[in-house]
Automatic annotation (TrEMBL):
Name recorded for this polypeptide: UNC-50 family protein
Subcellular location: Membrane
Family statement: Belongs to the unc-50 family.
Keywords: Membrane, Transmembrane, Transmembrane helix
Length: 211
């Protein structure tokens, strides 16, 4: 994902836009989500109607709706507060909304690998009770969120007309600062973000499979 931003300037020179003109990556991400969610549904014995509802919810809420909100927020912040003041000899440039959504898609992929793929194989451990499963699940969630924001930063840092893009790294610091405290609180309350995420795929399973 980091290497993909190395071609951004070249794409601007050849296509006169920062965003991709090919939606193939978005389609691939959606197919990955459908496949991963189907694997959860099959593994935990969900009924066909509930499996279909779960897949639709993951694609349209977890990925598309969240992406629309985050991309719009970043698009607004960059164009309103992070652009350098152009001089009279430079054409004013703005972040395209489609580019902001591209950045979200690039940043989402590693989070998908951690929260959908890796979590799937670790789910027998993560749904167990105890300190180690809680620690591991929260650590994975922290890494996924942090890496998402790091790639988000890279996506905007490559644009030459933006300034103070380190703003997009601030959430990582917040996650790291709050992580030790949150682990204590979450363990004491028997709540884990990844366990809660796993529960989403277990709603129609028997009590023996529930988190």
């Amino acid at each position: 994902m980091e290497d993909s931003y190395q071609h951004t300037k070249y794409h601007k020179q050849t296509k006169n836009q920062w965003a991709r003109d090919d939606p193939a990556f978005i389609v691939i991400l959606i197919l990955f989500l459908v496949f991963a969610t189907s694997a959860y549904c099959a593994a935990f014995g969900e009924s066909a109607p509930h499996a279909a509802l779960t897949i639709i919810s993951v694609v349209f809420v977890h990925f598309l709706f969240a992406g629309l909100v985050l991309a719009t927020l970043c698009w607004f912040l960059t164009n309103s507060y992070l652009r350098e003041e152009p001089n009279s000899h430079v054409v004013e440039q703005r972040v395209e909304w489609l580019y902001a959504f591209d950045v979200h898609c690039n940043s989402f992929f590693p989070a998908f690998v951690i929260l959908y793929v890796l979590q799937y194989f670790l789910s027998p451990l993560l749904i167990a009770h105890g300190f180690l499963p809680a620690l591991l699940s929260n650590l994975l969630f922290m890494v996924a969120i942090s890496y998402y924001h790091y790639l988000n930063f890279l996506g905007y840092d490559v644009l030459p007309f933006l300034d103070r893009t380190t703003f997009f790294l601030y959430p990582i610091g917040l996650v790291i600062i709050l992580s030790p405290l949150s682990k204590c609180i979450l363990y004491s309350t028997k709540f884990s973000p990844l366990k809660n995420h796993l529960t989403y795929f277990l709603l129609s399973c028997s009590d023996t499979h529930r988190v």
